[in-house]
Design goal:
The complex is a heterodimer of chains A (about 120) and B (about 110). Chain A is mostly beta strands. Helix content of chain A is about 0%, strand content about 55%. Chain A has no helices and eleven strands. In chain A, strand 9 (about 90-95) and strand 10 form a beta hairpin. Chain B is mostly beta strands. Helices cover about 0% and strands about 55% of the residues of chain B. Chain B has strands spanning about 5, 10-15, 20-25, 35-40, 45-50, 55-60, 60-65, 70-75, 85-95, 100, 105-110. In chain B, strands 2, 4, 5, 9, 10 and 11 form a six-stranded mixed beta sheet that branches. In chain B, a hairpin with a 4-residue loop joins strand 7 and strand 8 (about 70-75). Chain B is globular. The chains are: A mainly beta (about 120), B mainly beta (about 110). The interface between A and B is medium-sized, with 23 and 19 residues.
């Protein structure tokens, strides 16, 4: 149980275009999902917290107009990188929090974004 | 300010040996301390987690030791195997948010 999927697993896009990444909790409902960014050989940096039915909470320094997050259902959150630039190239990972008192956070397999 | 400090950056252990990774945190309000294992090109996988009401938690070959007064916790991997070779991240926080350490790349030699 507690499986989180991401789609696509990798994507290449041209500079100036937008790309959408999906995060799904497959076997549980997640009222809260998180989006992280990871540079090569570095740690995970929390970008934003996504709550179902409400606006996302962004970490300091993360441009909310550039990284649009939508959490339309209890099993799906999307991250849209708008007007992508080469410096946005990174590994984007989502996680979802299981419900209940013994809540745990499970991560998706990640999405490799390359902006040319 | 770095919320969670992790060491060592890299670790080489012989097969069958014990791997030890240490983390320290600053915020005494943190109440959740998980460890994640990550293979190249994959997302982190939850290994084991501890809450501050206990000093140790063991699951199979993996043990977390927690020292609340020192604000430190560590991961011990007993009988380390080549398949354990990966990057390990500690994290600290609460239900709403947690912060990751910088990671430890473990290489278990056969």
């Amino acid at each position: 149980g507690a499986v989180v999927s991401q789609h696509p697993s990798w994507v290449i896009c041209k500079s100036g275009t937008s790309v959408k990444i999906e995060c799904r909790s497959l076997d549980f409902q997640a009222t809260t999902m998180f989006w992280y960014r990871q540079f090569p050989k570095q740690s995970l940096m929390l970008m934003a917290t996504s709550n179902e039915g409400s606006k996302a909470t962004y970490e300091q320094g993360v441009e909310k107009d550039k990284f649009l997050i939508n959490h339309a259902s209890l099993t799906l959150s999307t991250l849209t990188v708008t007007s992508a630039h080469p410096e946005d190239s990174s590994f984007y990972i989502c996680s979802a929090k299981t419900p209940g008192l013994a809540s745990e956070q499970y991560f998706g397999p990640g999405t490799r974004l390359t902006v040319t | 300010q770095q919320q969670v400090k992790q060491s060592p950056q890299s670790l080489i252990v012989q097969k069958g040996g014990i791997s030890i990774i240490n983390c320290a945190y600053e915020n005494t309000a943190f109440d959740y301390f998980p460890w994640y294992q990550q293979f190249p090109g994959k997302g982190p996988a939850l290994l084991i987690a501890i809450r501050p009401d206990v000093s140790e938690k063991k699951e199979g070959r993996f043990t977390i030791s927690f020292n609340k007064s020192a604000k430190q916790f560590s991961l011990h991997i007993m009988d380390s195997q080549p398949g354990d070779s990966a990057t390990y991240f500690c994290a600290a926080g609460n239900f709403n948010k947690f912060y990751f350490g910088s990671g430890t790349k473990l290489n278990v030699k056969p």
